[in-house]
Amino acid sequence: MVNRLNCKTIEILLVEDNPGDVRLTKEALKEGKVKNKLYVAEDGEDALAFLRRQGRYAQAPRPDLILLDLNLPKKTGREVLEEIKDDPDLKRIPVVILTVSKDEQDILKSYNLHANCYITKPVDLEKFIEVVKSIEDFWLTVVMLPPR
Amino acid sequence: MEVTFLIVISALVQLIAAFFALRLIKATGLSRAWVLIAAALCVMALRRFLAIEMVSLWLFGVAPAPGLLDETLVLATSLLMLAGVLSISPLFFTIKQAAEVLQRSKDELEMLVRQRTEELREANARLAVELDERRQAEYRLAQYAEELKRSNAELEQFAYVASHDLQEPLRMVASFTQLLAKRYRGKLDQDADEFINFAVDGANRMQALINDLLAFSRVATRGQPFTPTDCNAVFDQALANLTAALEENQAVVTHDPLPTVEADGRQLVQLFQNLIGNALKFRGLDPPRVHLWAEPRDRDWVFAVSDNGIGIPKEHQERIFTIFQRLHRRSDFPGTGLGLALCKKIVERHGGRIWVESELGQGSTFYFTIPRREGTEHGEPTELQDH
Fold this sequence. Notes:
The complex is a heterodimer. Chain A is α/β, with parallel strands linked by helices. Chain A is 39% helix and 17% strand.
């Protein structure tokens, strides 16, 4: 087991097609206490290519945490989640669903597909920053993660 | 001697015939004809008698001889007979006429029957057409109903999707204006701060509207099937959701024993919560006192939520159930004006109705009905899910 706090930079993969949301997440993470590096995949296929180190992502690192939006072009977040959790190599990486949807069906389906947690993006900026910080705090400092 | 006997018999037969001829007068009404014929017969009978030797000798002193008298009597008989027959002829004419009239009326009758039959056939055809038209109208009505249902469902789906998809860009507006405020408040001029505040406030209000719209459209699109629901548990849940507001207002909310009804439990919680929440929000100077009770009336349960709040003027009591209708300035009572429209939609989805009785300054009582269904009053209520 490795305590990431004392170690190197934490790698986060954000799967998000909205540049505004990407920027907001970046801003929120800036205020966090953990040194982190954020990678962004803009659609589902891109995300899977990154995780499998295919094509231009041959040198991509293995992320410690995945922040996954549900509404994505090409491959939806749900499909990405399903493929990650079906892949023996990737399924240990914690996946946090970060979406605007409060739909019960979305929540239920995500957990059925073994999402590690489901978070609704708050509209309020302060709350959003708080949520991102708490994700960071919980998943990157409180939780003991599996070795890479 | 034998000849005399024969003559007497024939004379008597002629007299008897004359008698019957006279009797026909009454039956036929042709008196003149029958009198003439009877007279002819009598003259013939007289001629018979005059032919008898004894009578002729007794009367005229001479033996009967065919001659002037006899010829005269024959002529008189013939004339009387002719006159009589002529007099009868109108009878035949009348009979013929009557037969014609009879025939005519028979023809008329037949024509009338034919006409009536034709009319009946036409009426039948009209009826068939009418029936067909009615059937078509019914079919069209059913189609309209189906279309209406579909377009309603589409509209609800549209409202849901629209408000759902509106969240994303709105979040961008709200988040970045907030970020702007956070980073640059006080660093630009006073105007900029004011503009930023307006933008942030607008985005926040729009967010509240969209959330309410979503909740409104969810009543139909995300409704759960009706199950036996214990309203006492619904009340407890609604109160639990209102804890903060109850404490803040130092409110006392009480209730009589409530029935178990066939309903969507989560929507009932929302309904109770909105009505009690309104009672707290539109409070007077005294601490809010809210009381809930229910009683069976006809085929419904009538629920009542009564408060000691500011009341609602008569002229606004209908309007308050319309979506986004507000009676107060936002600065006095915040809110989107959707709460009661949502209540109405929930009650109507359950087949009930909602109304208010109130007087300005005298508090309000909101009533709503939920239909009673057989067997639910004593049925096993399902557990309410927390949310």
